[in-house]
Design a protein that fits this description.
By secondary structure, this protein is of the alpha+beta class. The protein has 11 helices and 19 strands. The N and C termini lie far apart (about 60 Å).
Length: about 450
């Protein structure tokens, strides 16, 4: 047996596991970790937090979250300041959490309220209570999700209010999905509109709808810390504009997963999820989100754990290895890269423009933070942060012109319309967009 020795290049291309540490490292004291600690992040579902302490890990920190007997939420460092016993075994009370080992009591803000094993007049015990605290972080419970701020308190930003919170969905259901890989690998997918055509429509069969399998024209937009990736597909006599959205550092939205397929007219349908990708440590992360159901989201029939997993990753997680190989979803795609992918071995292409752009922005913000410049927060318009993740389907038959040029023109019109209505109230913005989309479709002026 003979081989063409000029074609086989395995030996000449040694595998290099070099990754971008600025992006991948998120622990306390790392440049990337300091950047992420300047924002609010979801850390748990409300349904998981009770009087029994829950261990969680966020940005590499081992934490315990709990409800006091008075229904106040505490998020504290896992280990007691006395002898490092785990507060996962602590007992919640009216005022806070009590260590099981020696009975020290801590308030939700970390104050040492009691050191019962010591003499009541002990100067050393009083000194400890006055001078030391258990590490604790402020939290906000909102619509079934608990958010926390893990950064310096003199830099705490306003809790962001996105217009998504005011969309009249029939129901918003909180969910949490774990990934065994670095957060950037999961975040990349939202700025990769091409992957939906292959992973969810061709490689694994139809995971959402047949329209996903169509490879459309790709457009990217950058607005401060907001990044948008549009996939404009031709589906018979219709044009389907689907917008994926990232607001740095980790807020993501997209169009509907199951409600839109490009076959029926749809005006400014909104996102299937309102979602954050949060590092637990450098080798794992969680997606914490609301799955959105109703006319502007997905069908209510997907309001269950299996539905959330399909909306999140295209497939359910509880499958055999063979099933995962036959029909991989997002989980298999991103975890298959390794727990931290070798960024330095990537060959990024023009369709990766969105990924390259947002990564550059994060790295630039990290470097600027080192020099004392605080990272930009999401921009508010008329009281809310306007978002763009959506589906629009318009009747637009082919013409005697280059169809690719027509698709790009339609996509540009849709994005321009969204940008021009940013300063309107939520209601007026929706009504204006609906009206203009109807006019555009009827007149065929793209």
């Amino acid at each position: 047996m003979s081989f063409n020795t000029k074609k086989y290049k395995g030996y000449d291309q040694p595998i290099k596991y070099e990754y971008d540490q600025l992006l991948a490292h998120t622990g306390q004291g790392t440049p990337g970790g300091e950047y992420l600690r300047r924002f609010w992040h979801p850390v748990s579902l409300s349904s998981k937090v009770s009087n029994i302490p829950l261990e969680i890990k966020i940005l590499g920190e081992e934490l315990v979250i709990f409800r006091t007997k008075k229904d106040q939420i505490g998020l504290v460092h896992k280990y007691c300041t006395h002898r490092r016993a785990s507060l996962a075994f602590g007992k919640t009370e009216n005022k806070g959490i009590r260590c099981c080992y020696h009975g020290w009591l801590f308030s939700i803000d970390g104050e040492i309220l009691e050191t019962p094993g010591e003499e009541s007049d002990s100067k050393q015990a009083k000194f400890i209570r006055d001078k030391f605290r258990l590490g604790a972080y402020p939290v906000k419970e909102f619509n079934g999700i608990i958010f926390a701020y893990l950064g310096p308190m003199d830099k705490i930003p306003e809790f962001p209010h996105y217009d998504s919170y005011e969309i009249s969905y029939e129901k918003r259901s909180p969910y949490l999905v774990k990934y065994n890989c670095n957060w950037i690998q999961v975040l990349d997918a939202i700025m990769d509109p091409v992957h939906t055509s292959f992973l969810h429509g061709q490689s694994s069969g139809i995971q959402f709808s047949k329209g996903f399998a169509q490879l459309g024209e790709i457009q990217f937009y950058e607005k401060g810390i907001q990044y948008l990736g549009a996939n404009i597909r031709r589906v018979e006599e219709n044009v389907w504009i689907r917008i994926n959205e990232l607001i740095l550092p980790n807020f993501t939205q997209a169009g509907a997963a199951f409600a839109a397929d490009g076959t029926k007219t749809k005006y400014f349908g909104r996102s299937s999820f309102t979602r954050w990708v949060v590092p637990t440590d450098d080798h794992s992360c969680v997606a914490i989100a609301w799955a959105n159901f109703g006319d502007r989201g997905d069908p209510i029939e997907y309001d269950n754990n299996e539905g959330y997993e399909k909306i999140e990753a295209g497939e359910i997680s509880n499958r055999s290895s063979e099933e995962k190989q036959r029909s991989p979803g997002d989980t298999e795609a991103v975890e298959g890269m390794g727990t931290i992918t070798a960024h330095k071995s990537e060959h990024l292409m023009p369709t990766d423009q969105g990924i390259m752009a947002y990564r550059r922005h994060i790295k630039k913000s990290i470097e600027e933070l080192k020099e004392g410049k605080e990272p930009e927060q999401p921009k508010k318009y008329v009281g809310t942060i306007k978002t763009y993740g959506q589906d629009t389907v318009l009747k637009a038959p082919k013409r005697n012109i280059d169809d690719k040029k027509l698709l790009k023109s339609i996509g540009s019109h849709i994005m321009k319309l969204q940008f021009e209505t940013e300063n309107l109230s939520m209601k007026d913005r929706d009504q204006t967009i609906f009206k203009k989309l109807s006019e555009i479709e009827k007149k065929g002026i793209f």
